[in-house]
Amino acid sequence: MIQEKPMTQSLLNRVPVIPVVVVDDVDHAIPIARALVAGGLPVIELTLRTPVALTAIERIASEVPEIFLGAGTIVEPSQAKQAASAGAQFLVSPGSTPTLLRAMTDSGLPHLPGVATVSEILTALEAGYTELKFFPAEAAGGANYLKSVSSPIPAARFCPTGGISTTNAHQYLALPNVGCVGGSWLTPSDVVASGNWARITELAAAAATL
Ligand code: 3PG
């Protein structure tokens, strides 16, 4: 059994929607963060999926301190420390291997480990986690799946991500075991590429009231 001592600061009670952001051009990082804040979503999960992601985190940490800045897509243990050093304030991983959990715990940052099965949920609970990312939410069973696990495993609460948008977010947010959802629909790649930051603020404002 994994014995961890995860940080207990809640990550699920801040906003109804955590924007999941992929930054391809580092010059987009600050305008995206400012646009999300302006729309009422002062939280960002910036994914470590591009070569500029850590630099983007550094810039946002320095220039947009009012945003609660997370690093997502932590898939290798070394990324936890790198993200913390860059200025991330929380970490998110799509899965939860023992090594990843150790690295995220060692970073000293609050973190959301990813789960998709009942056994993974139970393993995470045994390790002391009660807040989890449910990924990939739609492909792994969607809101019906989380509804089914809420009765036997009420202690686990989730931020589902993967295939969620305004059309289905409410199905998740209505569940007692969902604190918030995450998604990339707030920062569509074409909107980001065109520098339409006002549109991102509009999308964030709509999501903030879900
Ligand atoms: C994530 O990392 O949480 C997902 O890639 C977000 O999924 P989405 O792009 O379908 O919103």
Structure description:
The structure is a single chain. The termini are far apart. The strands form two sheets. This protein has a six-stranded parallel beta sheet. A three-stranded parallel beta sheet has the order 6-7-8. It has helices at 29-38, 53-63, 77-86, 98-106, 118-126, 142-150, 169-173, 189-193, 197-208, and strands at 17-21, 43-47, 68-72, 90-92, 111-112, 114-115, 131-134, 157-160, 181-183. α1 crosses α9 (197-208) and α3 (77-86) packs parallel to α4 (98-106). Residues 1-7 have low confidence and may be disordered. It is of the alpha/beta class and 210 residues long. The protein contains nine helices and nine strands. The structure holds 3-phosphoglyceric acid. 3-phosphoglyceric acid is lined by residues 20, 47, 72-73, 94, 135, 161-164, 182-185. Residues 20, 47, 72-73, 94, 135, 161-164, 182-185 line the site of 3-phosphoglyceric acid (3PG).
Task: Please bin the fraction of helical residues.
Answer: 25-40%
The major sheet is characterized as: 6 strands, parallel
Radius of gyration: 16 Å
Q: Structural class given helices, strands, pairing?
A: alpha/beta
Global shape: globular
Beta-strand content estimate:
15-25%
- Widest β-sheet, arrangement of strands: 5-4-3-2-1-9
Element-level helix/strand string: EHEHEHEHEEHEHEHEHH
Tally of alpha and pi helices: 9
pLDDT averaged residue by residue: 94
Ligands, deduplicated:
3-phosphoglyceric acid
- Separation of the first and last Cα atoms: 38 Å
- In terms of per-residue confidence, which ranges show pLDDT below 50 for 5 or more consecutive residues? 1-7
